[in-house]
Amino acid sequence: MTADGEERIALALGADWPELREAVARLCAGFDGAYWRACDGEGRYPEAFVATLAEAGYLGILVPEAYGGAGLPLRAASVVLETIHACGCNAAACHAQMYIMGTLLRHGSEAQKRRWLPAIARGELRLQAFGVTEPESGSDTPALRTRARRVGDRWVVHGRKIWTSRALHSDLMLLLARTTPLERVQRRTDGLSVFLVDLREAVGKSIEIRPVRTMINHHTTQIFIDGLELPAEALIGEEGRGFRYILDGMNAERILIASECIGDARWFLDRACQYARERVVFDHPIGRNQGIQFPLARALAETEAAELMVRKACALFDAEHPCGPEANMAKLLAADASWRAGEAAMQTHGGFAFACEYDIERKWRETRLYRIAPVSTNLVLAYLAHRVLGLPKSY
Fold first, then answer.
1. What's 249's DSSP letter?
2. Does residue 394 belong to any structural domain of this protein?
3. CA 20 to 30 Å from 225, out of 71, 197, 248, 289?
4. Would you call 14 helix, strand, or coil by DSSP?
5. Which domain CATH number covers 278?
6. Calpha distance 120→97 (Å, rounded)
7. Taking the CB of residue 29, how many other CB atoms lie within 10 A of it?
8. Are residues 195 and 107 in the same domain?
9. Do 257 and 375 fall into the same domain?
């Protein structure tokens, strides 16, 4: 194929950022399986990995150049996260900083951007906590009970959040709270507002953070908020329009999580194929058997198809076009592809898949999360059935 032909294909598929992939891969080479096994076994936050990413500027990749960031599109962030996972690492410790940016960048005031973004871009501040989900409401976001009440020139917040990952390792938190009671709004999604909370000032006073122990090393927490006082300038955008604002963050979140799933799938396929070529049983490599080949080949096809939807969703998001269906489909397809690839890798390795030193079981546990969160597979299907196919709403 000619260089011109390759360029036309690249333009049709969206930027592939080869130099960025190579740079991220070199960084990841310093954090091998032993590092991640140690973090997993000890329940330890991968501080060195996150610090290295921040120092290299990757966590500020979406921050505009005017505020000290790289000013790159979501597609570039997608490539970074995919590469991290394809190298066997895990970006869950810090990926929220990328997708939370959507709410602050698109709806924050100029004063808020100038106050917070330069330090975030330099890696001096971490914005990694997204306080949305609550124990009672789950995915039914408009039913959340956290309440913010205006008292003079301040807001006073009471409530509780769960599955707020990285809150113990973040300086700032994006918080969604109801500012108008549900019974007083025309639409359930009205009356919600977004606040930027400085956790450094609030934790130990009006905020208590408790870790939630889980089957993966995800550093998720419960947050208890009792009389949190916020200045008026902590409000992002207009009061009562917060649900619309966080959709930018949620669409970016689903696209970027989908990118991580693509990386996981590629890692599983690489490891499984390498093992299948080298493992000899009954005098020949097990990779010769179609029982090994076919699941891996199917996982490959599903991964490539899912990646095309990720690219499409990135293109729409970067063009500031509506992308809800595409973001949800990307996340659905990529999570299924990574799970299928993980299952194929488990079966290929047989008993050795359960040996921690191979890292298969760790990555298998990690990638399983994404069929449940953020947003479960069933809820994505219900959304697509209603919003895209026009079927009666079931949720």
1. H
2. no
3. 248
4. coil
5. 1.20.140.10
6. 9
7. 10
8. no
9. yes
Measured between alpha carbons, how far is 365 from 338 in angstroms, rounded to an integer?
11
| Residue 357 Cα distances to 39, 200, 284, 350, 363, angstroms | 13, 38, 24, 14, 12
The domain that contains 142 carries what CATH number? 2.40.110.10
Same domain, 194 and 153: yes
Query: What are the DSSP calls for 146-174, one per residue?
Result: -EEEEETTEEEEEEEEES-TTGGG-SEEE
Any idea what DSSP says for residue 93? G
Confidence of residue 393 (pLDDT cuts 50, 70, 90): very high
In a domain, 333, yes or no: yes
Domain enclosing residue 329, as ranges:
244-387
Alpha carbon distance, N-terminus to C-terminus of the chain = 49
DSSP lists the bridge partners of residue 236 as 194
Give tens-digit pLDDT for 147-177.
999 999 999 999 999 999 999 999 999 999 9
| Of 127, 160, 186, the domain-final residue | 127
For the chain, give the percent of residues with pLDDT over 70. Answer: 96
Alpha helices in 166-219 (DSSP H): 199-202
Residue 162: strand pairing partners: 222
- Orientation of helix 324-349 relative to helix 377-387, angle to 10°: 150
Mean pLDDT of 13-42: 94
Distance separating alpha carbons of residues 31 and 349, to the nearest angstrom: 23
Q: Are 323 and 316 in contact (CB under 8 A)?
A: yes
| Final residue belonging to a domain, choices 212, 241, 270 | 241
Same domain, 279 and 375: yes
- DSSP run (H or E) holding 304: helix 290-318
Same domain, 314 and 351: yes
**Claim to verify: residue 133 and residue 113 sit in the same structural domain:** no
How many CB atoms sit inside 10 A of residue 160's CB? 18
